[in-house]
Amino acid sequence: MGGMTIRLLVVDDDPLVRAGLALMLGGVGDLEIVGEGADGSEVPALVDRLAPDVVLMDIRMPGVDGLTATEALRGRPGAPEVLVLTTFHAEEQVLRALRAGAAGFVLKDTPPAGIVHAVRRVAAGDPVLSPAVTRQLMSHVADGARARSGDPRRAAALARLESLAEREREVAVAVGRGSSNAEISATLYLSLPTVKTHVSRILAKLDLNNRVQIALLVHDAGLLDDV
Questions:
Q1: Which residue segments constitute the domains of the chain, with CATH numbers given?
Q2: What are the b/e assignments for 145-176, b being 16+ CB within 10 Å?
Q3: Could you tell me which of 61, 58, 56 has the C-alpha nearest to residue 83?
Q4: Which site in 103, 114, 116, 160 is 20 to 30 Å from 169, CA atoms measured?
Q5: Pairing relation of β-strands 81-86 and 54-58?
């Protein structure tokens, strides 16, 4: 963020969790807790009024849950990044959040330094999912959620990927495998700037927010079945 303060909105129905996060994050020099919410229904008004850079969003809330709130928020122009709070025991919920445009997730029992690092990365536009975690997440859903040839989701994903040039498609599949830009550069014999350009074009063509969504789309298309 170039030394700028990161404005953070915390949304969780548990007041103890909100208080803990505020205490944990409020003392960090480059973070500012600009507001708190107890339900997803409060998010639009809070975002409009407080203009946060990052929303730390709980998944399970009694009114409007964090998944619904994330989908609505990320569909708006100029939306802040969303970092989802999860226990990692509900992979389908995590996948839905990532498909909706969340920049990643953190566990509720993550050490304070880890949450601070995640917030900073998300604010800088870097999804909080390492290649290893991406592969792990894919493997969790592969057995039960792998698309079959007649599945409408697979057909829709393949149709979206048709807009990509051949080289862009190769890069997209590599992203789906969890490869870093450096690994893609070495594997496809492309310069690192060229890989970055391809990723940017893929995001623009497919109207996606981050490389995690690229990975999920490639997964839905069934292009990782033999990986």
A1: 6-128 (3.40.50.2300), 149-220 (1.10.10.10)
A2: eebeeeeeebeebbebbeebeeebbbbbbbbb
A3: 56
A4: 103
A5: parallel
pTM over 0.85: no
Give kind and range of the element (H or E) at residue 100: none
Nearest-angstrom CA–CA distance, 117 and 28: 11
* pLDDT tens sequence across 166-180: 999 999 999 888 788
Mean pLDDT of all residues belonging to the chain? 84
Percent of the chain past pLDDT 70, that is, above it, reads 85
Q: pLDDT digits over 51-108, tens only?
A: 999 999 998 898 999 999 998 998 888 899 999 887 765 567 777 788 888 888 888 8
Could you give the 3-state DSSP secondary structure of residue 176? helix
DSSP one-letter code for 189:
T
Spatial separation of the C-alpha atoms in residues 74 and 220, rounded to whole Å: 20
Q: What is the spatial distance between Cα 100 and Cα 89, in angstroms, rounded to a whole number?
A: 19
Q: Confirm if 172 and 178 have CB atoms less than 8 A apart.
A: no
C-alpha–C-alpha distance, residues 83 and 92, integer Å: 16
